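Many introductory courses stop at the sequence. We go one step further.
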Amino acid sequence: MSYFPDTSNQNLHAFAFSRRRAGHPSMKHKPVVIWMTGLSASGKSTIADALDIALQEQGRITAIIDGDSVRGGLCRDLGFTDSDRDENIRRVAEVARLMLEAGLIVIVALISPSSASRHFARSIIGNEFFVEVHVDAPLETAEKRDPKGLYKKARAGLIKNFTGIDSRYDVPVFPEVHLDTQALSVEQSVATILDWVAHNDGCT
């Protein structure tokens, strides 16, 4: 059963900092969180890396939060049960929100399989600043790519609760951006995201 912790606490009162979510005056872009969701080996990290470079070339200040990286540090105490996955996403969303408030464009590359957990992340970050990007690759395609050999291990029973094999992935219904990675190259995928950002950036 999914678990979303009760974040309410009567003794906590966040200070209303003046510049929160406004970014630095020198920045000429709207800070957003570009949340990439998709199966393992769908291309999230590859596209995130290329997008990061493209945004920096435009003079935008960025940060990347990658699923494997946080699993090795911030979330290394978590497993892959539904409740642990939800907590993993909550932590990432909280960190992304802090980066957002510093004025960055934050690129998150995270499987985030549950639609409920993605909705929860959106509620933490704020709908105005949350850009859901579905990096779409069919399971068969992801398995053929399988650069880390994870699907093979999951099929052999060596990895439990693996998304797409013995753990469900909820396909996004109305993502801000949909990337069909069978039809689009990495460059075309990046261009699609950049086009969305350009049309929704109130600062340019």
